């Protein structure tokens, strides 16, 4: 389960960067894992779960925590997962946000969260996009795309052009 959790966390980080760039918050989060639907020897498994966040957020820690909780509900032991992802829905501008009446985070918590997210963004701008990240993303990235069977990029990379020999 560790590899798929790392992949989901990575997807959350990518989505978070886009949210922050566009100054949006998210209300709905969907998570999906699936197997290789083309492998006839394995039983296909594809499920998703969607839920509404109590309060809209653009906090990477909250997005990752909610996504991992959702994944735990969907995960089944012994299944060879091939792909996973997240989807964000009901994106709204950050400034006029309607919080839940009975479950509002404190103003100090919101200020601390915003300061931390701004700090992470400034570190990314100064040192590179993946210079600081959540530990949930992992460091090995065993889940990345397999490139053994990748076709050459003849039309986009000079180094991969075939060489004609006489």
Automatic annotation (TrEMBL):
Q: What's the protein here called?
A: UmuC
| GO biological-process terms attached to the record | DNA repair
Domain DUF4113 spans what residues? 114-164
Q: Which organism is it from?
A: Legionella beliardensis
- What GO terms are given for molecular function? damaged DNA binding
Q: Which domain of life is it from?
A: Bacteria
* Domain DNA polymerase Y-family little finger, chain residue ranges per copy: 3-101
């Amino acid at each position: 389960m560790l590899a798929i959790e790392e992949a989901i966390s990575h997807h959350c980080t990518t989505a978070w960067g886009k949210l922050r760039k566009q100054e949006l918050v998210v209300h709905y989060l969907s998570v999906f894992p699936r197997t290789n639907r083309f492998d006839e020897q394995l039983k296909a498994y594809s499920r998703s779960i969607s839920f509404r966040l109590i309060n809209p957020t653009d906090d990477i820690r909250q997005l990752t925590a909610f996504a991992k909780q959702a994944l735990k509900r969907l995960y089944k032991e012994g299944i060879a997962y091939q792909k996973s992802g997240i989807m964000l829905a009901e994106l709204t501008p950050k400034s006029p946000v309607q919080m839940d009446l009975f479950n509002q985070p404190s103003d100090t918590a919101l200020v601390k969260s915003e300061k931390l997210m701004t700090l992470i963004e400034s570190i990314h701008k100064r040192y590179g996009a993946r210079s600081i990240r959540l530990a949930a993303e992992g460091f090995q990235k065993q889940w990345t795309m397999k490139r053994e069977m990748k076709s050459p990029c003849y039309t986009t990379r000079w180094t991969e052009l075939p060489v004609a020999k006489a």
